[in-house]
Write a structure and sequence with these properties.
Blueprint (H helix, E strand, L loop, with lengths): L3 H59 L3 H15 L2 H32 L8 H9 L3 H16 L4 H21 L6 H29 L8 H38 L4 H19 L2 H21 L3 H38 L2 H10 L3 H16 L3 H21 L1 H4 L2 H25 L3 H27 L5 H29 L1 H7 L1
Length: 503
C-alpha cells in the first residue's frame, strides 16, 4: 500500500503535463480559428463546417472506436501478461483502419458527392474532396495513438497533436495570405488540414518503430477488436451523422422561421465555428485526465482490483465537476466580451455567455462515457448516445421557431444531460457499493463547487448601491478568497484525501 502514493503522484504529474500540452494545443487552435474567421468570414466558416462535419463521418468510419479498443486490448494484455496480444492488436487496428478508409474513399465519397441532400451547397463538395486526401493518414495515426495510450506513453501523442496543430496553423496562415473569397478561403483551410495530417502520420510511424513498437499477425486480435470497436464506431459515426444532419437541418429550419439562406448559413457558422469551440474548452482538461486514468482503470477492471478502480472513478467524477464549475462563471461573465474581442462578432459572445450552462452535463457525460468504454461497456454507451442524440434532434426540429440559433446549443445541453443521467444510472448498477462508499464525498465536492460558483458570480457582478461600491474591493477580495479555499478543499478531496488514506 505504501507504493500507491508515488504511483498517484506520477498519475497526476503526467495528467498535468498532458493537460498543459492540450491547453497549448487548444489555445493555438483557438487563435488559428480567430484568424480563420477573420480571413474567410462567417460564410466561409459555414462552408468549412458543413464540409468538415461530413468529413468527420469519414474519419469515424476510417478509425472510429479502433484507437480506444487497441488501447484497451493492450491494457488487457498487460494485466493478463500476454505480450503477443499487444502487437496483434496494433496490426489488427491498422488493417481494419486501412480497409475501412479505402472503402469510404472508393464507395462512399462518390455517392456523397452526387447527393444534394447531404451537401446543400455545391461549393462544399470540393472542400470535402480535399479533406478526404488526409483520411488514410489520420486513420492509421489514430491507431498508433491508441497503441501509445495503451502502453501509457501519454506525453508522446499529446506532443504530436500539439505539433500537428502547429503545422496546420502555419500552413493555414501561409495559404490564406491571398484569399479571394469565402469559398477560396475554406478550400485553402482544408488543404492546411491535410498537410497537418500528413505530418502527424509520418511522425507517429517514426516514433512507433523507433520506440520498439511491433506489428504481428492481426488474425488473433481481429474478432475481439471488431466486437469491441464496432459499438464505439457506431456511436462516433452516429455523432458525426447527427452533426452532419444538423449542419443541413438547422439552416433549413432557420429559413423556415424567417431568415434568408445567407443569414442562416452565417448564424450556423457563428454558432458552430466560433461559439461552440469556446464552450468545448473544458474538454481539454477532461480529456487529459481521462487519457491518463482510462488505461489504468481498464487494467484495474480486468485485474479485478475494485478498490483502485472505484478510487479512479471517484477522482474522475470529482475532477469533471470542479472543472465545469470553475469554467462556467467566467464564461457567463466574460463570454460576451470574449466573443467580441476574439471573433469581432457580438452574437458569438452572446451564445458563449448564454450557452455556458451546458458545461456541467457535458463534462460529466464525457468523463462517465470514457469510464464505461474502458470497462468494456461499449454497447451500453452506444444505446445511451442515441437517446441523447434523439433529444438533440428534437430540439433542432422544434426550437428554432422559439429561440432561433439557440436551438443548437440547447440541443447539445439536452443531449449531454440525457447521456449523463443514463451513464450514472448504469454506473450505480454495475459498480455496486461505489455510491454507498463515496456518495458523501461526491456530494461534498458538488456543494463546494456550487458555493465557489456562486461566490465568483457575486464577486464579479457590479454592486450598484453607494455603500457596496465603497466596500466592493474588500467584499470581492473576501469572496474570491472563499472561492479559492472552496476549490482547494475540492482539490484536496480528489488528491490529498485519497493519498492520506493510502499512506
Amino acid at each position: 500500500m505504501k507504493s500507491s502514493a508515488p504511483r498517484l503522484k506520477t498519475v497526476y504529474t503526467t495528467a498535468a503535463v498532458v493537460t498543459g500540452l492540450s491547453v497549448f494545443k487548444r489555445g493555438l487552435g483557438f487563435l488559428y480559428r480567430i484568424v480563420l474567421s477573420r480571413l474567410i468570414g462567417a460564410e466561409g466558416m459555414g462552408l468549412y463546417q458543413i464540409a468538415y462535419s461530413l468529413f468527420a463521418v469519414f474519419l469515424t468510419l476510417g478509425a472510429g472506436g479502433i484507437p480506444v479498443t487497441v488501447s484497451r486490448l493492450i491494457s488487457k494484455s498487460k494485466a493478463e501478461h500476454t505480450p503477443k496480444a499487444e502487437s496483434a492488436a496494433v496490426g489488427a487496428g491498422a488493417l481494419v483502419a486501412l480497409v475501412f478508409s479505402l472503402f469510404v474513399l472508393v464507395f462512399v465519397l462518390p455517392l456523397v458527392d452526387k447527393s444534394e441532400l447531404l451537401l446543400t451547397d455545391s461549393r462544399a463538395e470540393h472542400i470535402l474532396n480535399v479533406l478526404s486526401v488526409g483520411l488514410v493518414f489520420s486513420s492509421v495515426y489514430a491507431v498508433l495513438k491508441g497503441s501509445f495510450f495503451g502502453n501509457q506513453r501519454f506525453l508522446l501523442p499529446s506532443l504530436l497533436e500539439l505539433l500537428e496543430e502547429s503545422v496546420m496553423t502555419i500552413a493555414g496562415v501561409l495559404l490564406l495570405r491571398n484569399v479571394t473569397g469565402a469559398y477560396d478561403g475554406a478550400l485553402k483551410a482544408a488543404w492546411a488540414v491535410v498537410v497537418s495530417y500528413l505530418f502527424s502520420f509520418t511522425a507517429a510511424v517514426i516514433s512507433f518503430f523507433v520506440g520498439g513498437g511491433k506489428v504481428s499477425r492481426p488474425q488473433p486480435a481481429l474478432k475481439p477488436l471488431l466486437s469491441s470497436a464496432l459499438p464505439i464506431t457506431s456511436v462516433r459515426v452516429g455523432s458525426s451523422l447527427v452533426n452532419s444532419a444538423i449542419s443541413v437541418l438547422l439552416p433549413v429550419m432557420l429559413v423556415r422561421v424567417g431568415f434568408s439562406s445567407d443569414e442562416a448559413l452565417k448564424l450556423f457558422g457563428v454558432a458552430s465555428g466560433m461559439a461552440l469551440p469556446v464552450l468545448m474548452l473544458p474538454t481539454t482538461f477532461i480529456g487529459s485526465i481521462a487519457t491518463v486514468l482510462m488505461p489504468k482503470m481498464s487494467e484495474d477492471f480486468y485485474a479485478k482490483r475494485k478498490k483502485r478502480l472505484y478510487a479512479h472513478v471517484k477522482r474522475g467524477i470529482n475532477a469533471a465537476i470542479l472543472i465545469a464549475t470553475a469554467t462556467t462563471p467566467f464564461l457567463l461573465l466574460l463570454g460576451k466580451e470574449l466573443g467580441a474581442l476574439a471573433f469581432s462578432n457580438a452574437l458569438a459572445g452572446e451564445i458563449i455567455r448564454n450557452g455556458c450552462w451546458i458545461l456541467l452535463p457535458m463534462s460529466l457525460a464525457i468523463m462517465t462515457t470514457s469510464m464505461l468504454n474502458c470497462m468494456g461497456f461499449e454497447k451500453q454507451t452506444f444505446f445511451f448516445y442515441f437517446i441523447g442524440a434523439a433529444g438533440m434532434l428534437l430540439c433542432i426540429l422544434l426550437l428554432p421557431a422559439v429561440c432561433g440559433i439557440y436551438a443548437y446549443i440547447t440541443g447539445f445541453g439536452v443531449n449531454f444531460a440525457l447521456v449523463c443521467t443514463c451513464n450514472f444510472i448504469f454506473l450505480h448498477q454495475k459498480c455496486t457499493g461505489f455510491f454507498a462508499a463515496h456518495g458523501k464525498e461526491l456530494l461534498g465536492v458538488v456543494i463546494r463547487a456550487v458555493l465557489a460558483f456562486i461566490g465568483v458570480l457575486i464577486a464579479c457582478f457590479p454592486l450598484c448601491s453607494l455603500f457596496f461600491r465603497i466596500c466592493n474591493a474588500v467584499i470581492a477580495c473576501l469572496l474570491v478568497g472563499l472561492c479559492i479555499a472552496a476549490f482547494m478543499l475540492g482539490a484536496y478531496a480528489i488528491f490529498g484525501g485519497f493519498r492520506k488514506k493510502q499512506a
